[in-house]
Amino acid sequence: MARSQWGSRLGFILAAAGSAVGLGAIWKFPYVASQNGGGAFLLIFIGFVFTLGIAMMMAEMALGRAAQSGAVGAYRKMGGKNWVWVGYMGVLVGFLIMSFYSVVGGWTIAYIIKSVTGEVISADAKHLGSVFGSFVSDPVQPLVYHALFMALTVGVVLGGVQKGIENLSKFLMPALFVMMLVLIARGLFLPGALDGVAYFLNPDFSKVTGKTVIDALGLAFFSLSLGMGAMVAYGSYVSKDTSIPGSALWVVSLTTGVCILAGLMVLPAVFAFGFDPAAGPGLTFITMPAVFAKMVGGQLFAVVFFILLMVAALTSAVSLMEVVTSFMIDEFHMKRVPAALSMASLMFVLGVPASLSLGEWSGYTLFGKGVFDLLDYTTSNILMPLGGVLLAILAGWKIWPEIHAQLGGDRGERIVWMPAMKAISCFVAPALVGVILVYNNL
Ligand code: PFF
């Protein structure tokens, strides 16, 4: 059977941007940036994204298109049998991330409902903290929403590459931009909002430490969906005449744009109402509802905000599930429907202890971490950077001519940035990502 393909270049760019733009950009970015010197973090993040990030994005997409296969097949075909386990690792990472990502995706659905009913429309951040705490630690409720989010994701993946993933992204990504612009416009007109903008954009280099740099690199990898084969799978559906460098540049720029917009959406409003911008992960689920409660028409904005968060999470979750589904299709010749359904059920099952570890099962820990934190930590801090280093080494040292050809070098023109791209793959990426790997785990 011929391999599925994206219907258009735009569809591919929006699907890949849909994978990248997710909880990383909208939930993590604003609070990590505000804990790390605002504008200074932003500059470092942009620096990484447009060097390492774009190079690795191109390499993943090129690898997928060259091999016409998802991660496992791609590493096997291009790297030989010693490399195939890097592909297996990517599939495993997709599986592990999806199981806890879907739990958080479930929270976003719950918060849409809680905004509609008014339960979280309160200006009292303490009260909101306890609503959030008791919701996520409840043994039943978050699991129902986790199941719902998983079902939504599988519904899209069952539709296939063009009818499911591409069509959804083509519709939801522009909707996400519009919703963000509306929320930003609303926030910027609040009295005192400009202090938040200044805080976010003014670089305070005194807050920059080694950890800031490492956090920026880690977040850049996570936010761009790199290091686990998602972009290999999406690249394998790209037609021969689509330019990979041009598309990758779009995806990276759109994702960075959304990170900046997310900062501009959250921080001015937080400042205008005198909340703590460095509130950490609770900024989205605890502080933002309090901000909305103080706004005229806030309930409507709260509903829009949580829909936006859910949409962003859904298009990312779809790519995680696609990695695992395409693996079952390519390697075991399964049909799409049983492949997606069986994998989604397993991911749901693994998400159950992840969710319970925030409540009833919080006593069960390994290395001091519950299941949820353990899954998050091992994937983001160990397995994804490891996948990134190995990809860079394969691309730069072993199959460069093939990557070079996929990136347009086969047209015989001299491409000015190509040597930089090769240097990044051979030296910069393995060294820098290797440093994060060591530093994070010492
Ligand atoms: N990029 C997504 C986010 O920022 O939320 C997370 C992610 C999706 C990581 C898909 C990896 C992946 F393959």
CATH top level? Answer: Mainly Alpha
| Straight-line N-to-C gap | 48 Å
Helix and strand run = HHHHHHHHHHHHHHHHHH
Instruction: Report the CATH architecture.
Output: Orthogonal Bundle
What is the overall pLDDT average? Answer: 92
CATH fold group: Hydantoin permease
Bound molecules: 4-fluoro-L-phenylalanine
Low-confidence stretches: none
Task: Please give a quick description of this structure.
Helix content is 77%, strand content 0%. The chain is mainly α and 442 residues long. Keywords: Membrane, Symport, Transmembrane, Transmembrane helix, Transport.
Task: Walk me through the structure.
With 442 residues, the chain is mostly helical. The protein has one domain: Hydantoin permease, CATH 1.10.4160. It contains 18 helices and no strands. The longest helix is centred in the C-terminal third of the chain and has 35 residues, at 298-332. The radius of gyration is 21 Å and the shape is globular. The N and C termini lie far apart (48 Å). 4-fluoro-L-phenylalanine binds next to helix 1, helix 2, helix 5, helix 10 and helix 14.
